[in-house]
Amino acid sequence: MSGVGYQIYSRSGNGAIRVVVSSAKQAVAKANELAESGNEILIKDLAGRVLDTATIVELAACE
């Protein structure tokens, strides 16, 4: 999965943010940044599979 690309989603009130990054390390960093605002975070690979936090952290450690 490494290098595939990841989508990070964050909901805020009636709006939403979607960020696409190219590595798991970037996904973890962006998810942490968006989570600081207290919003719900969802991470998917570009194939649309939802990844839990432990999986994306493990992928980042392997990069």
Please provide a written account of the structure.
This protein is an alpha+beta fold. It is 35% helix and 33% strand. The protein is built from two helices and four strands. A hairpin with a 4-residue loop joins strand 3 (41-45) and strand 4 (50-51). It is globular, with a radius of gyration of 11 Å.
Give the secondary structure arrangement, pairings included.
Elements: E1 6-12, E2 15-21, H1 24-35, E3 41-45, E4 50-51, H2 53-62
Antiparallel strand pairs: 1-2, 1-3, 3-4
List keywords for this structure.
globular; four-stranded antiparallel sheet; 4 strands
**Overall 3D geometry?**
globular
- How many DSSP-defined strands? 4
Strand order of the largest sheet: 2-1-3-4
Cα-to-Cα separation, first versus last residue: 10 Å
Helix proportion of residues, in percent? Answer: 25-40%
Query: Structural class given helices, strands, pairing?
Result: alpha+beta
Please report the number of helical segments. 2
The helix/strand order is EEHEEH
Largest sheet: 4 strands, antiparallel
Summarize the structure.
The chain is an alpha+beta fold and 63 residues long. It has helices spanning 24-35, 53-62, and strands at residues 6-12, 15-21, 41-45, 50-51.
